[in-house]
Structure formats: structure tokens, C-alpha cells
Amino acid sequence: INYATLGFSLSLSISKAGTVIFSSLMIILWLLEGQYINKIKTLKESNFIILLFLLILLSGLSIMWSPDKEYALNFIRKYWHFLVVPVIFTSLKKEYIKHVITSFLIGIFISEVFSFGIFFEFIKYKDILPSNPAPFMDHMNYSTYLAFASLLLLNRFFFVKELKYKLFYITYFLITTSSLFLNGGRTGQAIFVLTIFIVGFINIKRKFLALFSMLIITTSILFVAYNVSPNFQNRIGSALADTKNIIDGDFGGSIGQRVSLWIIGSNIFVDNILIGTGTGNELNGFKYYADKIDFSDYNLEGYNKVGFIDYHNSFIQYAVQLGLLGLVLYIGVFYSLLRHKFQEKVYGNLNIIFTTVFIFHSMVFFSFHLIHPMVLFSLFASLLAVISRKEYREV
Questions:
Q1: Helices (H), ranges, 272-313
Q2: Mean local confidence (pLDDT), 108-131
């Protein structure tokens, strides 16, 4: 299980097939390991795991009031990726924890080698263009991976004592941050800019110094990125244009469509506040509300093919699907993560960073529906939970 977890961690950012193979292997080995009574007893100690699986259970129960039960069942089966959470929580040995995090960073480095190679046209990989060099996953989720890895490295920089390690981590931080801003994922870039201030505040005692230093770092990175990366410059220009159009009442752009989804989803939630509309095919209800609040010209071409509306916001998604209880459970998952206690501050800070990154990601994605954010969450949420369990009994 420990070695399979290392393979799982390594494969997250470079191979979807590898991620599935290693996660399946982890689950099979865990079942063969036995000791079910002790495992159940251990799992019951974790408020985080209880809330996560209550959310999944409620999603399963919502099939009963879903308009398309077959689709809902196919939708919910994706949650099997979360089965690695109890595996890691009950069976990962403490001495492997650092190796698992290092394995994740090695995977990130491999993906960056491909990314830089594609950008500078040294490497041709599939049909990936130099203008958006995300080699192994979509650019939006890849940018989130890079943002989290970059902030993880910066956090480690504050805790290592030897100069050679400080130089290593700050160099790797700059490489990862450069890769982040070469890519077209505004999500990860925005997460990085917002969360780096939290990294500064939790690691630097003098808060004015923290604010000033993080402001200087962020401004410098954005200035260089804007002048060096045409992709970043174009995406910023597009975002500003979209924002102006929204103010003028035009929701046709990328950001405008997300805002209209949030408005429509919020209206559906208010009218179905107790149990939501059920998991799965919400397209018919969406069309009704889009017309009701004068968003009837919303482009549904892509959604008509899959029969599923992605509200690009996990909080709204669960509010629509599962009502108030689902929304409370989803918020509770993050609250329970933040309640973890740690003896080693490096892990306490990492817990805050990871939870913050995922909350921001959840504000613009349905994070528990796509494999890449699901497995990233499964690995680090369970890893931080097991670190806390081995140091403290959860509150």
C-alpha cells in the first residue's frame, strides 16, 4: 500500500491511466489487508472522513428524486476515486508521508519539463500547442496543480535551515511559478495570487513585512509574466474585456457565462432549498430557469450533448443537486480539514494552504466531478488527515 501510494502520488500530474491503476491497486491491497474492525474504528475518529462520505451517501440517495436515474448513477460512480482516502488514512505508514509529497513534486517536475519543451518547441507531444503547453491534463486543472505545488515549495522554503536547501526550494518555486504563468489557466494563476498572501501571513511574524514582501513578489511575477508570456497577456486582456461586458449586461464571454450559471443556479437552489433537484440530469430544469430570469439565449450546445449542467462552482452545484443539507456537508468537509491540529507547523501551514487552494478552485469548478481535482483532493486531504491523526486525536 505504501509503495502503491507513492506511485499514485507520482502519477497524478503525468498519467491519468497511472492514477487509475495505482488507486485501484491501493484499494485492492487494502481490502486484502483485512483488519476491518480496527479500520472502521479508526475511520470513525475522523470528522473529515465522516462528512465526506455523508456527502457521497446523500448524492447516492438523491438518485431517488433525480429526473434521470440512469444518468445519475453513472455520474455518482465517479466518486470511487475517493476510496483511496480511507486507504491512506488507515494504512499509510508515517515514514512514507514525506516520500509521498516528494513523489508528487517529482511528478510536477516531469510535467514541467514537457511543458517548457512544448513552449520552446523542443518537444512535440500529441496536439499540444506552444501557446498553451499543458501536456497531461486540461490547462485549467493543470494551473491549479502548479499553483498548489508552487505554494507548497514556498512554504517549505520557510522551514528548511540549510542554505543549499533554501536555494533548491526557491529555485524550484520560481521554475514552477514560471510554468504556471506560461500556461493559459487563469484559475491557477488567480489562486496563486490570492493564496500567496496567506503563505506570507502564516510564515512571517511581522504582518506588515509579510504583506509588503508578498506584494513585491506578486507584482514582480505578474509584471514579468505579462511582458514575457503572450498567453498570459492575452488571457488578462480577455478577462478584462469579459468583465467590462458583464457590467454592460453582456454575459456572452467566458467569465460572463460563469456568472450567468451562478445566477441561474442560485435561483434554482432558492426554489428547491430542502433537497435540491437531485444528482445528474438537471438540464431541463436549467432551461426553464434560464428562460424565467431572461437568460434564455444561453449557449447550451455543449450541455445538450452530455445532458449535464456544470455550474462552475461546487458550492452552487451541491446546493442545486442536494439542497441546503448538501451545501452544509460540502462546507463542512473544508471546515473539518481546517480543524486538524499539527505539532509540526510546516504541515499545519500546508493544511491551510491546501484547503484554501481547493476552496478557491471550488468557486469556479465542480471539483468533485473531474478526475484531476478529485485525486489531488483525495491524496492531500487524506495525507494531512493522517498526519494530524498520528500527532493528535482529532477535535
A1: 283-292, 301-306
A2: 88
